[in-house]
Amino acid sequence: MVDVELVGFDTVLAATVAGWPVSAGEAVRWCGQRQVSPKLVAGWSTAAGVWAYTLMADGTPVGYGELWLDDDEVELARLIVAPAHRRQGVGRRLVEGLVEAAAAREGLIFLRAHPDNTAAISVYRAVGFEPVDAATAAEWNVDQPVAYDWLTYVAVVPNGT
After folding, report:
1. Distance between CA atoms of 14 and 87, rounded to whole angstroms?
2. What is the pTM of this model?
3. 55, 64 contact by CB (below 8 A)
4. Paired residues of 73 in beta bridges
5. Tens digits of per-residue pLDDT, 15-53?
6. What are phi and psi of 55, to 5 degrees?
7. What is the mean pLDDT of the chain?
């Protein structure tokens, strides 16, 4: 794995990111939309309360994700890895970078994942996310289009410290 860096998203990359879903089904799992346009991605990244990031590897965009900020919580959202860079640890590096950026704020860090997105859920769990309790998940899913898997970040404290 080459060195990567998480940087603020530049809307110049919106067309690149919009092209990363390899199917309509993947687009739905990523962002709830069957079709994703550069205009849509650019709009997400400039919305109030959204901090958008790109994971760069040697000057090439390889990942995209957002932090949705609220008073006492941060949601990691719309995470995606460029198809050519999947299954190489890029997703984990993206999640770790977003968690680091989110941890700079006080409060709960959480995310939701489409229940069919088992690869992403596996990455989230490997980084330290754990499922919320069933009652909380049910409450949070009331107005959602699908019953998402909701996870919250549990800081991993090394033994002996």
Report:
1. 23
2. 0.91
3. yes
4. 108
5. 999 999 999 999 999 998 999 999 999 999 999 999 999
6. -90, 120
7. 91
